[in-house]
């Protein structure tokens, strides 16, 4: 397929990639190909493969063999037009490969003298009889290279994967046709200047070349047709763009001259290496790491759009230099988003000294952002999006992240809100698209975070008098329609999911009274000491939490109950309920005062948590019971209940219970005394009776003192 695509001369590699994807999808639809481990791989059933090889051998003169022990005998392969061989035992190749019709050769040898060192070498005259060769792939062989390689004038694709390489300056003789050069994983130490003569080159891959130390200045900039470029992530010998240092090293300036570049894989050790005005507006696929250690996204690089920023000082304003110039457009009255990274799908930021990660105009350009990770270190970051330095009229423009699926914020001590109160979209239409794809949100070790959705219910916008009254919805429900997992961890100041107690001096433009999680399946709240309630009846839409299956509460010091009774109809799908180390916890389910008058007539038919199969209560020293209902009333658990675990939990009882417990203890003592005074001769006969009475007395004491939990379990396990 690669040879056929090269023969069709597609205008761009993107066009060629689209053609390949179209063909692959057609074959998948016909069940001739199967999905692989990821989007870059496919699988083929053994039967289909055998049939395909048979047809290719008979009709197209293809030779495909895997696991061959030695090179085919002379006279058996010369007629083939394509050869693909894989072997773990081949130690020697023929001196000359006489295949006048051969256009494709793929050879992979897995045998090595020791790890990482190929043991098979290419003879000097090996390629002399293959003048029509257009595609050559060698994997795990020694290429020094042979002089006959320079005779392959028709060669358009050369892949030297995991090879032991010598001086590859001979490649200059392939300058008229060579379009793809892959050196991935090879031990090349210096890229020869002659590579700059390959002016037809569209793809240059130096990924995983860990020993590469030198790329001469000017080589990359000469490859003006280059569309795809991969640097090794350990490469650090860049020429700085500041100062008068005259060293023959590659510089980032050279990348700016590559007008056709659409795919870039690069690690920039320090932002000082970036030239003024550095921007790559045509990138479609990229894996860019700036500062700190490199980030390697593995074999999926061709389909990813990843940017990682480590240890970035705010003085360099790295985000605006990479994502465009939003301030430039604002100064000229424009409201257009940055288009530098419209296809960005993942951003990971670590230890960056930024007050705000994105300005609103920067954020508006990230329409495809799917995953946002912010990890620790910054003592000044106050919010993910902030409006510092931008005009007021820009504040009301949509910054919704409509494609965001995963949000992780870890160890950001100064952050007080995930979104600054001035920057969230204020019109109903804009809010509809916000968080529409969010499936996972984890916030941990953010000691100053007060509200998870801070600012939404108290939106303050200057110039609000210019917006007509009918445009505003004061009771809008903030929806997280796709959120499946929500984890809150070590949030010292967090007190609620939203805060309606803050009163602003100006009338809020958008007041969100309700926050809905209609698809949430897992809710975990760990070490949030100031939270006093999880659910607010006045702020809860009817469809919220209806799919919740797992609820975990751990280390919430001020929480006195977990589930108010009005939540029982919504939490009908809960299967697992875990409550750990909440010292003020008195009951798990609490009856609200407003319902006390009507509960007697209705609660007999209520089944708490009808899908519950496991409940764990651990270290709840003030727990009075599971349900705070009158003793004559009963609420039933589901008959599917498999396991109740109560460990190191002190159940507090009233005086009557203490009295019963004392009487039970006395009764047990009397029983034991009577037993001890019995006839010694009958002791053997009375052993079973004594044991039965002791067990009975112990059960009575436990029932009176430790298990006065107001609940009825219809059946444990299967009926």
From TrEMBL:
Domain Disease resistance protein At4g27190-like leucine-rich repeats intervals: 521-638
Keywords from the named record: Plant defense
The name this protein goes by in its record: Disease resistance protein At4g27190-like leucine-rich repeats domain-containing protein
Lineage of origin: Eukaryota, Viridiplantae, Streptophyta, Embryophyta, Tracheophyta
Source species, domain of life: Eukaryota
Native organism: Rhododendron griersonianum
TM helices/strands, residue ranges: none
Acidic residues: bias regions: 655-667, 676-690
Start and end residues of each stretch annotated as Disordered: 654-700
